[in-house]
From TrEMBL:
Residues 3-421 form the Regulatory protein YycH domain. It comes from Paenibacillus sophorae. This is Two-component signal transduction system YycFG, regulatory protein YycH.
């Protein structure tokens, strides 16, 4: 009998020890679980593939200067755009010389000299451009961002010129050593001779002399669920609390981070004000951090391009613009709108760490949609439209975009002209 009682007491002591060990290892006084077992952790859903930063860095357009004041434009994913860009990526550019932008006669170069102009609308850090082009910048040039690269040759030149425009607007960097011959430039320019001719008055924007053929699409659309976003953004999505705001938006928080969902506009906004700073940051480093963050928290549901990396107070804002389209008609940006936030991924970073993240919850199924070729007006028809809207404010840029419209469970992407004005405003023309 005594032996049986001893056995029971020993068993209770062992059980008590196991319980105490559990609390010592898995619990902290006054807090939730400090360590999560595998069956409690919800793995992130694969909402989109991971992306490489090199695939997010490309010019928004390629302007071909044919000489004799003739020009044409190639857009991403079109035949000659791909061919020329691939060739330029294989060339090297070295020994950069800093010069004033006024030291060149750009109007004359544009109208008389054959050349290729690559446009990066909001600019790209040189440290990132090195990932897609063979550059050997000095420390001064490496800290710059450029919004244009102009490669051209003159009548009596024995070598090609390669000029990189700083986003500051007053400085350019010319490569004294460029692995390009005059014949190389002419060969690339010749690809544009049989293409749609464009005209320009001052180089700010270009008007096609005939209608432009683009692909319109009607695509099945779906939504990422709140559960998918929670599991992507919170370590323990089961520990979040739900709050419904008066404006109808929904907030999910674990007391440190918050996820706000706007069901009306299919938009999510995530913030983590407690994120620890990574230390020194630059434009290039913050873009790389932003790409890694999207890779880990949602992925890329389509083709995206680095749109901007700009400072705002002590923060840096990094945005990626979605492009739609493919060979041979080209790819164009999908327009983000106040009532339909689609096509844009935005992140805010403080000292190299992501503290805010926004994107659409909507995605489309491109392989199941219907497509057709439509035409955007060009020539005199387009010029008359532009004349009617540019009397008070100068036009800064003109380019095709896709206007997204939701109709039931379908997403319509309709090509339109986007007009950007010098005062920062913009509008669309059909």
């Amino acid at each position: 009998m005594k032996e049986r009682i001893k056995s029971w007491i020993l068993a209770l002591l062992v059980l008590g020890s196991l319980v105490e060990s559990y609390y010592l290892i898995y619990r902290l006084p006054g807090s939730d679980s400090a360590v999560f077992s595998e069956n409690l952790y919800v793995k992130t859903d694969n909402m989109g593939p991971e992306g490489k930063v090199e695939n997010l860095l490309f010019p928004d357009k390629m302007i071909i200067h044919l000489g004799n004041n003739k020009h044409t434009l190639f857009y991403p994913s079109s035949t000659f755009y791909n061919l020329i860009l691939t060739r330029l990526k294989g060339r090297s550019f070295e020994s950069f010389q800093r010069r004033s932008v006024q030291s060149f006669n750009w109007d004359k170069i544009r109208s008389e000299n054959p050349g290729i102009e690559l446009s990066f609308r909001s600019g790209i850090p040189v440290a990132l451009l090195q990932r897609v082009m063979q550059l050997s910048p000095d420390s001064l040039f490496a800290g710059e961002s450029v919004d244009r690269i102009w490669i051209y040759s003159g009548k009596n030149d024995s070598k090609a010129h390669a000029v990189f425009f700083s986003t500051r607007g007053d400085i350019v960097y010319e490569a004294a050593k460029a692995d390009l011959t005059v014949q190389d430039v002419q060969q690339h320019v010749d690809f544009g001779k049989s293409w749609t001719p464009y005209t320009t008055s001052n180089g700010s924007y270009y008007v096609p002399e005939s209608n432009l053929s683009l692909m319109a699409a009607e695509l099945p659309s779906k939504l990422y669920t709140v559960e998918q976003m929670q599991s992507s953004l919170f370590f323990d999505s089961g520990s979040t609390r739900y709050i419904r705001e008066k404006d109808g938006s929904e907030i999910y928080t674990d007391s440190k981070r918050s996820l706000q969902v706007d069901q009306e506009h299919n938009w999510m906004s995530y913030s983590d004000p407690t994120a620890l700073p990574a230390g020194e940051s630059t434009n290039a480093k913050d873009v790389l951090e932003a790409v890694d963050f999207v890779n880990q928290h949602g992925g890329w549901n389509g083709t995206y391009k680095l749109e901007a990396a700009e400072e705002s107070d002590q923060d840096r804002l990094v945005s990626f613009q979605q492009y739609y389209g493919s060979y041979p008609y080209g790819a164009y940006p999908v327009l983000d709108q106040p009532k339909l936030h689609y096509g844009l991924i935005g992140l805010r970073l403080q000292q190299g760490t992501v503290t805010a993240y926004e994107r659409s919850l909507m995605y489309s199924e491109d392989d199941k949609g219907s497509k057709k070729i439509v035409e955007l007006p060009g020539g005199d028809t387009l010029r008359r439209q532009l004349a009617g809207i540019s009397q008070s404010v100068a036009i800064r840029d003109l380019y095709p975009v896709y206007l997204p419209v939701v109709k039931g469970d379908k997403l319509e992407l309709t090509p339109v002209w986007r007009v950007d004005f010098s005062d920062g405003s913009s509008l669309t023309l059909k």
